[in-house]
Specification:
By secondary structure, the chain is α+β, with helices and mostly antiparallel strands. The protein has eleven helices and 24 strands. It has two domains: about 290 residues, 3-Layer(aba) Sandwich (Beta-lactamase), CATH 3.40.710.10; about 80 residues, Lipocalin (Beta Barrel), CATH 2.40.128. It is about 20% helix and about 25% strand. A hairpin with a 5-residue loop joins strand 2 and strand 3.
């Protein structure tokens, strides 16, 4: 479930889309021209024109662009808005949800621990824990499958563990779906286990480790694994395909798979450091960016789909440790995408020539402009677009229609019977709270979302197509709830 609130301002969006350059924020030196892969150059004015045209055509709220020449930041600029409702511009220092860009920077930190021999890529993960892995509640589902003993850190970082992307997509149960190490299947669950391993071995919380080893040394001053009050002065809301705000996402628990908070400037500093070999020895860096598994799948998602193809053999599509890889006439390329509700990001770097690009957007429509941005600004036609399911905006379906619903009144005493916590799986918690005649739902660390009654047990969110229904006992006290959003349903049972 993605929580969504704040009334969309159609007029403001139209104004911002029509002239997003008015909201552009440039802080890097304004170069007369930026070098592209083929040796040609593109001017700042041409970049501006390309980005603003695409934002308007694809209904993208805000975009941050960083371009790298010779391994250094050559262009850094933000366009559009971070908050449509208040007409606040997106800036290079606006804090954004990094989504899965978190995985690659986490892997970089893990490789430091490997280099220092604190961790071993090929030691079975279960051997690091003081108890058998299935005795930990989040991994109890593995008790009947001894294959968990085969899983290594190398498999977790290269997405070959056999886990699904998330257990929520497999009926809420964590299972091993193929022999560990035998093939690629992208897995957030694998990175979550790697985080558990790292925190157990180092006896330090992830946020502290990331600051000590990455954020502070690289000068990433507005990056953290959890929300900080200092971010309130400049943060971005995410927006869905219809341009509706998801609101601020002030996450309170570190999540290596997708929860990092960062900015265009800070993540560009990380990519620059990686390009220049900072933080890792050459040997360890080469290992991180070397193929661990060839990718034969037709698409990256759904991750467990078994359909294969030879379409990407020419670019030798593969996965390293935390990074995707492919090869072109310009040499090896490493890349990572970030995809979450309201956030679409992409980082790509041509390692031998030091040319790269970072795209960060606070819009679920962001992926629709990747192809044009990469080919126009970078002269990069090699991206495995179909495998990554990057549909150009011209081919994307229209945004979902807003469903009209009518409110009804429900007595506060009835609402009080719904208040409590509901759990659908380990780590997936829904909290229902009631304030007078108003009722709210909160998923894990997401902001509270106000619900409105369509009936005594049926509720909905305004603007966003979210529905929630309670199951009650004979006394009218809720025993479970079911949420429905974007064609997916989750049932959660009430905790005592």
């Amino acid at each position: 479930m993605a929580t969504k609130y704040a009334l969309a301002s159609v007029l403001l969006f139209a104004a911002a889309a029509a002239a997003p350059a008015l909201f552009a924020q440039q802080t890097a030196p304004r170069l007369s021209a930026v070098k592209r892969l083929d040796g040609s150059t593109i001017s700042s004015e041409q970049i501006d024109a390309t980005v603003t045209r695409l934002m308007q055509a694809a209904r993208v709220t805000g975009v941050g662009i960083a371009i790298f020449n010779d391994g250094k930041i050559a262009y850094l600029k933000a366009y559009g808005v971070r908050d449509k409702e208040r007409a606040l511009p997106l800036t290079p220092d606006s804090v954004m949800i990094a989504a899965s860009l978190s995985k690659s920077i986490f892997s970089y930190m893990v490789m430091q621990l490997v280099e220092e021999k604190i961790l071993d890529l090929d030691k079975p993960v279960y051997q690091y824990f003081p108890k058998p892995l299935p005795e930990y509640p989040a991994y109890a589902d593995l008790a009947g499958d001894a294959r968990y003993k085969q899983i290594t850190l190398r498999m977790l970082l290269s997405h070959t563990s056999g886990f699904p992307n998330w257990r929520a997509f497999t009926a809420g149960k964590l299972e091993i779906h193929f022999a560990p190490g035998s093939r690629f299947a992208y897995s957030g669950e694998g990175i979550a286990l790697a985080q558990f391993l790292v925190e157990t071995v180092t006896k330090e919380p992830l946020n502290q480790l990331m600051h000590e080893r990455v954020f502070d040394p690289l000068g990433m001053r507005r990056t953290n694994m959890v929300w900080e009050a200092r971010f309130d002065d400049d943060f971005a809301n995410g927006y869905d395909e219809a341009g509706n705000s998801l609101g601020p996402q002030k996450r309170q628990h570190a999540n290596a798979a997708g929860g990092m908070l960062t900015t265009l400037r800070d993540y560009a500093l990380f990519l620059q450091a990686l390009a220049q070999g900072e933080g890792l020895s050459q040997k360890t860096r080469d290992l991180m960016l070397s193929p661990q598994v060839a990718i034969l799948s037709k698409h990256e998602f759904p991750s467990l789909d078994t359909q294969t193809t030879d379409e990407n053999e020419a670019i030798r599509l593969s996965y390293g440790l935390g990074w995707g890889l492919y090869w072109t006439p310009y040499g090896k390329v490493f890349f990572k995408e970030g995809h979450d509700e309201g956030w679409r990001h992409y980082a790509v770097f041509f390692d031998q020539v030091g040319t790269g690009m970072l795209i960060m957007t606070n819009s679920s429509n962001g992926e629709g402009i990747y192809e044009d941005l990469l080919e126009t600004l970078l002269k990069n036609p090699y991206t495995p677009l179909e495998w990554e399911s990057f549909t150009p905006y011209q081919e994307a379906p229209p945004p979902p229609a807003v469903v009209e619903r009518h409110e009804t009144a429900v007595a506060p005493a009835v609402l009080q019977g719904y208040a409590g916590r509901y759990q659908s799986q380990p780590g997936e918690m829904f909290t229902i709270s009631v304030e007078g005649s108003r009722i709210y739902v909160q998923e894990n660390d997401s902001p509270k979302l106000e619900l409105f009654a369509a009936g005594e047990r049926q509720f909905f969110a305004k603007i966003f197509d979210l529905q929630l229904e309670f199951e009650v006992d004979a006394r009218g006290r809720a025993t479970a709830l079911t949420t429905k959003a974007r064609g997916m349903a989750f049932r959660a049972e009430r905790l005592p």
